[in-house]
Amino acid sequence: MLYRKYINRIEDFLTSHPDKILLVNGARQIGKSYAIRFAGKKLFKNYVEINLKEDQEGAQLFARVRSTQDFYMQLSTIAGKRLGCKDDTLVFLDEIQSYPAMLTLLKFLNQEGRYSYIASGSQLGVALSQTPSVPLGSIAIEEMYPLDFEEFLMAMGCGTDVIEAVRKSFETQTSVSEALHDYLLRQFKLYLLVGGMPEAINKFIETRNMAHVRKIQRDIHNLYRIDASQYDSNHKLLIRRIYDMIPSNLENKKKRVIIKHIEETKGHKQFSDYADEFEYLIHSGIALSVQSISNPKFPLSESEQKNLMKLYLNDVGILTGILYDTNINAILDDVRSINLGTVYESVVAQELHAHGNTLHYYDNKKKGEVDFLIDDFRHLAALPIEVKSGKDYKVHSALNAFVSTPDYDIGQAIVLSNEREVTQEAGIIYMPIYYCMFFHRSPSTEEELYIPEIAPFQL
């Protein structure tokens, strides 16, 4: 069994007796159903699971459901003996985007409270945008992602005591021992190959055979391309084109999406002309977006340049499979002729995104580019992060210019590389690449969240 941190979040939600229904959003094949199934069977006497995509492709029992009574009738035909009451029965609606009308119906199912419900989908962002009556007051939407590096470590047998020791080193900005560094760096490189898809990790643990792992990754990659082909006929070809371009775009110097390359025409199409295509790729969870910032003021969302964007694949294992197929030496042996910059940036994007950070990058014609910017909510500032895969990790002219610009008010910057030692020079902290697993969105302490009462004003 692969440990998933997200299971704890599901259990906390279900045991808090919420007045909302949890919708778990995320790409296909990342383990949503497994996590919900595990939590549901653990917490409820009666567990009922309905895959609405399978129903859509098969019996279509729920295709014409438009009322709660319609729903209860169809539900009873497949799970009549497993239906109790709200406290002991959980109904899991998987791939709910297959029937957008079901999203609206959740409001009324929730109000009637006959059973407890949870739902998941792989394209909820797209489905919700197309649903005329979204029950926002009745649902809570949370994102789920492939296994992050911390979860991968645990899958590979790394104990929680080791991870907590590394976390303490990160928090105190100190270095781990050479032996521990060698172990973590080796595991990190394995993660670059295997990625975070549960099926791929399980197959690697079972066989240690990368050919088998690559087969699974290719199948998932093709599944995403097929899903794109089933989208609106006016957009499906362009969605696949943009999705297929992601690895080659990342190999270019700028790494960003070039609009004129999408259709290879000499027309005057703009970024906004492909808004639906980008929305599908991002909201379906198969691509991660990184928006450009030229004036990095906190909060970064106020300074986004909507027409400049980088796209990364949602799983680094899929990327390395596309780039290197079954040749593992490019990553494990640091082949000098191979530039792993794209791969390292991709895994950091994946980690930052999974930990709740909204991703941006710095793009200034005079000063250059910085790989990532995230909001540092504790210090109300932008935090620049540069990712280095080679030996020249201290060569970063754009980051130097960025940090030294007084108007940006940058307190610190971070460079991630393969080097073990944590050092600091001129406001730049150098950290080992595996510390990216701890870059969670800046948490606040209970003391910081507490707002004291204000005494009534008296004349």
Short description:
With 459 residues, the protein is an alpha/beta fold. The chain is 42% helix and 17% strand. It has 19 helices and 13 strands.
Report the sheet-strand fraction: 15-25%
Determine the fraction of residues in helical runs and give it as a percent range.
Answer: 40-55%
Oligomer: single chain
Report the end-to-end length measured between terminal Cα atoms.
66 Å
Q: Count the strands?
A: 13
General shape: globular
User: Structural class of the helix and strand makeup?
Assistant: alpha/beta
Instruction: Tally the helices.
Output: 19
Strand order of the largest sheet: 7-6-8-9-10-11-13-12
Overall residue-averaged pLDDT value: 91
Poorly predicted segments: none
Main sheet specs: 8 strands, mixed
* Structural Rg: 23 Å
Relevant terms:
459 residues; alpha/beta; 8-stranded mixed β-sheet; 13 strands; globular
Please characterize this protein's 3D structure.
It is a single chain. The chain contains 19 helices and 13 strands. By secondary structure, it is of the alpha/beta class. Strands 7-6-8-9-10-11-13-12 form an 8-stranded mixed sheet. A 5-stranded parallel sheet has the order 2-3-4-1-5, with helices on both faces. α1 packs across α2. It starts with a helix and ends in a 10-residue tail after the last helix.
